[in-house]
Sequence to fold (576 residues):
Amino acid sequence: MIRAFLTGIRVHLVQLVRSPFDLVAMLIWPIIYASIAYYLIGTGSNTRVLFTASLGAAMMMLWSQVIVGSGFALDMQRNQGTLELLVAAPVPLVAVIAPIMIASAAFGIYGLLVTLAWGRFAFGIPVAIDHPVAFAMAAAAAILAVGLLGLIAASLFVLTRAAAYVGVALQYPVYLASGLIIPLAILPAWLGPISWVLAPTWGYRGLTHAASGTGAWREIGMCLLLSVIYLVVALPCLAWFERLARERATLRLS
Amino acid sequence: MPAIEFEGVSRTFRSRPGMFRRRTVEVQALTDASLSVEPGELFGLLGPNGAGKTTSIKILTTLLLPSSGRVRVLGHDPAGEPSKVRPLIGYVFGGDRGLYDRLSARDNLSYFADVYRVPIRDKSRRIEELLDVVGLRGREKERVETFSRGMKQRLHIARGLLHDPPVLFLDEPTIGLDPVGARELRETVSALRDAGKTILLTTHYMYEADELCGRVAVITGGRIVAEGTPASLKAGIADRTVIEIESDKVDEAVVARLREITGVTSVVVEEREESQLLLVQSSLGAQLVQPLIGLLEGVTVTAVAAREPTLEDAYVALVGAA
Fold:
């Protein structure tokens, strides 16, 4: 199972890297997100604030890549007939679906780098990371947690033939509830508890704290804790939706 | 114990099209279908498009739940015990889908070997063996997107055999292949049968079933209408003669009149590039030729021949009568 999981991540990453569409999309999205963040925060703000905003843009892009990218990836698997073969495989479904999510999230590293590079060269925002090791660990923890949050959604993607559309619909609510567009402090208080169970919230905080050198270990720990919780929730969801998909005949496009 | 058991299986598909005032639409894909395949047997499931062949295969390969009936593969229930059935079966479908096009043939096999739990110590050897079996040696490092349809189909077979399953489900594996590719694939399937695999093959190429299968079942409209050896199905219409009439365009009204001739049991029209072939089945033998030609007044007839019925004729008779 672990072998299938690890090979699956490599296979799906190779698929993404060899897709001209995905490579170009991943070049354009971060530029748009970073530009929005830059102009939203204000061109006169100090560079630390702007850099923090660009990290928020990177986290938005990471979530988009997971939820939309994996929705498209599942639809593509359904369309090319490989989803049926993966479901019919002897390994548990999580071992073939989770790699799609993790690969999509890992592909987000490319987006993170594009975001930071765009901020640096287009807007002159310096890449100021005080704790590079903590930053790398926060990024890895964020990728894991966001990928596994996507796994819960993926259980629904196994059932529906409109996975990509569901993914698109799930983008903005999480942007908002995680404080990636507008600071949580100025949003309704009831959004607070929702933000705590969303990995992008802690992933974003982990990156910003590591960058500013204020310590990101609590945020990294939260990402890991949420990863375990997401996995525990996703496993029965996957089993349930797989059964429903077998009942409703939605594993194939036609 | 049979390797594959299918007893009284029905499957209904339900959908609710539209946005408003949605109503449930039901399609009965299988109705009380039963068949049994013994270990080591190559069994053919024949039927036209939409007859229920793929639905049957999907139920057997754990991908679809039956609405009712009893299904067993090597004694296990694909609906309730998918984790026990999946390691024992290989599933290969026709066409060029089911592969990762941006990966090489070897990378595809390597991934599916991991997903199908091929022991790591056997993995490389198994992949090398199968590349030889399906004739893709030397092309294994190329991306699948550069492969011809035949090459993809052979790669499919290799993928389905990676974990050396005792039971194979081949769903129209030669569809879309050129004659040489199809023949090579039939040779591969024949070798698998000789190696002792239990194979359920769906096809609508009758010569393929006649050449490969020990027994066949004919399915149409979700119902199995006949089962037996190809010879026994042919024997069912042994008293008939098939008269082939090659002509230019014959309109539907004339075909309808041909069907009304006493002794004619079926008339099938096959479109050719610049002509039509009328296949007339009759229990009256060659004496029917004159009345048939008489009704084709004004039609240019280029050839007439009478012959013994084939499995395809038996199939046409069974599907036509259902």
